[in-house]
Amino acid sequence: MIVSVIVDVESKQINRVFDYLVPEHFKQTVRPGMRIIVPFGPRKVQGFVIHTKHESDVDPGRLKPFDDIVDVKPALTSELLALAEWLTDHTLCLQVTALKSMLPAAMRAAYDKRISLADDASRTNLDSALLPFFKRTGDVMWDEVKKTEPGLLKIVQKEVKNGLLTIEPVVKSRETKKRVTVIEPLLPQDQLLEKADETDARAPKQALLLRYLSKITAPAALTRLLEETGISRATVKAAVKNGWADQRQVEEYRDPYEGREFKSTEPLPLMNQQKEALDSICRSLDENEHRTYLLHGITGSGKTEVYLQAIDRALKQGKEAIVLVPEISLTPQMVHRFKERFGSDVAVLHSALSKGEKYDEWRKIRDREVTVAVGARSAIFAPFENLGMIIIDEEHETSYKQEEEPRYHARDVAVERGRTYSCPVVLGSATPSLESFARAKKGVYTLLTMGSRVNNVKLPGVRIVDMREELRNGNRSMFSTDLLDAMNDRLEKKEQMVLFLNRRGYSTFIMCRDCGYVAECPHCDISLTYHRSNQTCQCHYCGYHVTRPNRCPDCESEHIRFFGSGTQRVEEELKKVLPEARVIRMDVDTTRRKGSHEKLLTAFEKGDGDILLGTQMIAKGLDFPNITLVGVLTADTMLHIPDFRSSEKTFQLLTQVSGRAGRHKKPGEVIVQSYTPDHFSIQLVKNHDYLSFFGREMVYRRQSDYPPYFFMALINISSEDLTKVVTVSGKIGEFLRKSLAETTVVHGPAASAVPRIKDRYRYQCMVKYKTEPKLAHTLKEILKTYQTEMTRSDLAITIDTNPYMLM
DNA sequence: AGCACGCCGACT
DNA sequence: GTCGGCGTGCTC
């Protein structure tokens, strides 16, 4: 018996299957989708079994048996193995990269070396630098040595040559399972009580323990037992020794929601528009028909309730469901709604969980202990085998696109899986991506529209304030008179408000007023942001930071000024103009710690704050009844980034934040401050007019050959050597033009929008096409041509067949 | 990737 | 004579 294996070596040359013999004792257990440990050249690596067979094309003498099996159950189902192949083809990534991306991070292998003394006598002759590590008997792991003294590898290798040490490569598993000690009575209840009566006089603690044991029906956690009875570990030990009880370790799933109560909810009554949407979706479900629905429902129209009831129907048919939400930790409210409706049937996979917690949630899916997976992008690979429903909430969100390899879009994967399982895929949004809406209009997707809010709550009134006008009237502050008045009004009425600004830190750039010097990152072509809390200037691209200069590094002038405002600056300013207001600031800097995000939101919900000030992360999913005012401080920052989607992003963001106001009984108001108030993506927010926005934006996309009219592919070339980047990208551009059809447009090569990041120069070529059968082949050809140069030098070529980040 | 093999310059 | 530089090639 032979297995074909994709080994965990990320290199173009190794991107194919290798065959291994199956050792006799594994013949019954090994199956496709399992991870195994294989010898690969001189080392050991992890590999994925792709299929089993009885003959190999490889010379039988060269076949080696594999070492071990990692998984008890296959990590990947046969469907996911096929999906990995699809991912590889569509994103042009390595097969092993696709396979690994489907597993939780805790299941990715780590490698180490075990160093042992050749024999006991070797110790005396060992290089003195290594002695501290070999004082005790037993082996030493290289990772341990590296931690204290990374330079010692040379000496270790020398001693290997001298025959004093041996090195054995090992594959470490990062999977840690949480274990708890449990106690279980070994005697029936009546005997326990009998024994308790006997021991009462001599050993009261034993008696207490025996009575406790007589009451339990399932094994009890030791820690809890000790806590509740107040007896000591020694007492328990004695009882175990007496043969009254058994103590053992059991595996436990870490429950990130432990101790939290979710009251269960019943389906809510639906409005007509919701019913119609639900009926269409359920029809596909009942008929086992794959169909992609675009659920276009304005903010507050009750999309979530439609998802919940559609899922419920799928579960009742014995099927499973996947729900994707953008960066789920950011929308705890959404998680709660699923937990409340489906209780312990839900596994949650979000970025704020620890690796171990994610692994446990993932195992619940694999072991079929749950039937619903709610999570961010990678949850689309949930290893279900009878999928009945896939839902992508806020489908326009760009976080569904992975910006590392494999560069996939969860929406595409969802449609592919929906096709395999013949099940409906529901894309929901108040502001669909242009791609999806265009597809819905063409009939590729089925459009479902929900145009009014639940209970007919009115959409908030939106006012657009011209900040140039404010300036002309002598208001140089960051708050317009309108916004300030409105804020004062809400403070008086004890109502809450949300202030939105998509820039963290304190200021956007630092400039010397005397000589015009602007502080820039020495490793990236980008200006530094001032962070007031720790008095540093930071680069948001590479993390470089320096203490703030008091004098201009160029001309020694003291007139260093900070321009533009970030959330920290606004917070400070708010303290000045509204000293009595309680402000809760929410951005990457205040939510870095685990759970802090939710803590801040709960505080705001409880009314511990009047103003919630934040970046992007407060734009989605917030649903608090007391919010009656939303202020957008600078609507145009998004508009000026060099990206053809900038108008779309601006409109989506403004509409989303607007939706945070007046979702319940109290009417809401939105004030948008802008320096370009006449731009259509800002004007059309006023009437929440998605359709007009769609129409206007499509005209621009058609004129400029952008998606959805054209497809794109982006080739990025980078190196520390600028000359190399220029020559290589030049050749690539030439090759693209020569190889592709005449109707295809090739832009560049040109320097990227951020021409240097982390000391690497970056150039790019852009391909825009309608149909291009030769594209995949041409791009693969490019990678093949530069394959050796990429391994031998620092040259890097990355290809994105559906780019969202054009920087 | 990571490791061995192999062929040329500067040291005990 | 040997140590070590990194070009080349291979991994079932």
From TrEMBL:
Which reaction is this enzyme known to catalyze? Couples ATP hydrolysis with the unwinding of duplex DNA by translocating in the 3'-5' direction; ATP + H2O = ADP + phosphate + H(+)
**Residues that coordinate or bind Zn(2+) 1:** 512, 515, 552, 555
Q: What is this protein called?
A: Replication restart protein PriA
Cofactor dependency: Zn(2+)
The catalytic activity of this protein is classed by the Enzyme Commission as: 5.6.2.4
Q: Which InterPro entries match?
A: DEAD/DEAH_box_helicase_dom, Helicase_ATP-bd, Helicase_C-like, P-loop_NTPase, PriA, PriA_3primeBD, PriA_3primeBD_sf, PriA_C
Q: Does the keyword Nucleotide-binding apply?
A: yes
> What function does the entry list?
Initiates the restart of stalled replication forks, which reloads the replicative helicase on sites other than the origin of replication. Recognizes and binds to abandoned replication forks and remodels them to uncover a helicase loading site. Promotes assembly of the primosome at these replication forks.
Superkingdom in the source lineage:
Bacteria
Family of the protein in this entry: Belongs to the helicase family. PriA subfamily.
Q: SUPFAM superfamilies from the xrefs?
A: P-loop containing nucleoside triphosphate hydrolases (SSF52540)
Q: Which residues bind Zn(2+) 2?
A: 521, 524, 539, 542
Q: What is a GO molecular function of this protein? A: ATP binding
Which SMART domains does the protein's record reference? Answer: DEXDc, HELICc
Q: Which PROSITE patterns match?
A: HELICASE_ATP_BIND_1 (PS51192), HELICASE_CTER (PS51194)
Which GO biological process annotations does it have?
DNA recombination; DNA replication initiation; DNA replication, synthesis of primer; double-strand break repair
Subunit structure and binding partners:
Component of the replication restart primosome.
Helicase ATP-binding domain: from which residue to which, for each copy? 284-450
Cite the Helicase C-terminal domain residue spans from the record: 547-723
Keywords, ordered alphabetically? ATP-binding, DNA replication, DNA-binding, Helicase, Hydrolase, Isomerase, Metal-binding, Nucleotide-binding, Primosome, Zinc
EC category name: isomerase
Q: Which NCBIfam families match?
A: priA, PRK05580.1-3
Q: Which gene encodes it?
A: priA
Q: Report the cofactor remark.
A: Binds 2 zinc ions per subunit.
